[in-house]
């Protein structure tokens, strides 16, 4: 899976309340929530983000509450992948569960700047910053987690596994 996009750069401890501020949680449906993505830290994010873009952050991205809508709105607004020095544990799991690709790479997180052109090979864990002329190697995932991401999340992955065993009907 090769992903290309512009970097949207953030610092340490980007919590779920700045990813999706609590005061907007009464919006109906995911589409209603998506327009507030990153608005607690970057009010112009939703106007700048383009499909395929990448969020790059420092340590502990997604800390705070277990607000599972946070990775959903990030994915829904077109972000193809998040690169961070580290992720909060609950965000890490929620991202995998919904099929949002994430990579941990402290060096790329440190050296990438807002607007840099990135090309990422998720399967290989390779991050190329074309703007800076640098290549980084992210921590790799076990094959089954890569497959969960490729299938679009834990539910589609599990459904496919059960169908392969004949445990679930496809109709």
What does this structure look like?
The protein has helices spanning 16-19, 29-34, 45-48, 69-76, 89-98, 106-111, 143-151, 154-164, and strands spanning 2-9, 54-57, 81-84, 102-104, 117-121, 126-129, 134-137. It is α/β, with parallel strands linked by helices and 171 residues long. The chain has two domains: 2-140, Aconitase, domain 4 (Alpha-Beta Barrel); 141-171, no CATH class. A seven-stranded mixed sheet has the order 4-3-2-1-5-6-7. The longest helix has 11 residues, at 154-164. It is globular. The mean pLDDT is 91.
Number of domains: 2
Taken as a percent bin, the fraction of beta residues is 15-25%
Inertia-based shape: globular
CATH topology of the largest domain: Aconitase, domain 4
SSE string, helix = H, strand = E? EHHHEHEHEHEEEHH
Q: End-to-end distance, in Å?
A: 29 Å
- CATH-level-4 superfamily name of the largest domain: Aconitase, domain 4
Share in helix: 25-40%
The CATH class of the largest domain? Alpha Beta
Which CATH architecture of the largest domain is right? Answer: Alpha-Beta Barrel
